[in-house]
Specification:
The chain has 182 residues and is of the alpha+beta class. The chain is 21% helix and 37% strand. Strand 7 and strand 8 form a beta hairpin. The protein is globular and about 45 Å long. It starts with a strand and ends in a 27-residue tail after the last helix.
Length: 182
Amino acid sequence: MRILLKLVLDCDADAAWRALHSPRALAELYGPLMDLTPMDAAGLPTSLEPGADVPVRVSLGGAVPFGDQLIHVSERYTQDARGPVRVLRDSGIPLTGPLAALDVWDHQMAVAPAASDPTKTLWRERLVIGGAAAPALWPVLWATWQWRGARLRALAPTWAYDPEPAGDGDGDAPAEASAPAG
C-alpha cells in the first residue's frame, strides 16, 4: 500500500535537501502530535548520512509511548524531465508499537527545483507499507501524512540559510562598502 505527497515548498532545493538530513528538522514535521527522541545515549546525529542507522522512540504528544523506529538512510541522485532529483530513502522499520505489525516500511523523499520557480522546491514523498496490518494502519498513516504535508508547507520557509556576504578579504568591511563613493 502506498501514501504519496507532492508539494511545492517555499524554499530552494538545497535548503530542503539539508532539512531532509536534519533529524531535528524532520522531527519538527510531526510536532506537536508526535515526538521523536533518540534511543542512543549519544543522542541524535547532527546529520543523517547514507548508511546511518538511527534508533528513535516515538511518543504521542511527548507523553504517550507509541513505539520504537529504526531509521536507515540511503541516497540516490537521478534526473527527470525537470532536471536533477535528489532522493533520501528511509528503509528502516518500526521495531515496537502498533507500526511493528508492518512487514514493509519504505519511505522515499525526493527534492528538485520547482519547474515554475527554481527558488522553490518540488517535494515528492512515497511511503510503501506492507503486511497483514497494512490495511488497518493505512488510514492512520494517510492522515498523519496529510498533517506532515501541512507542516512541510509551514516549516519550509524556515529552512533557508543565506550566509551574510563575505568581506573583501581585508577583514574590515563588506566588499560593496569598500568601493569608492562616486
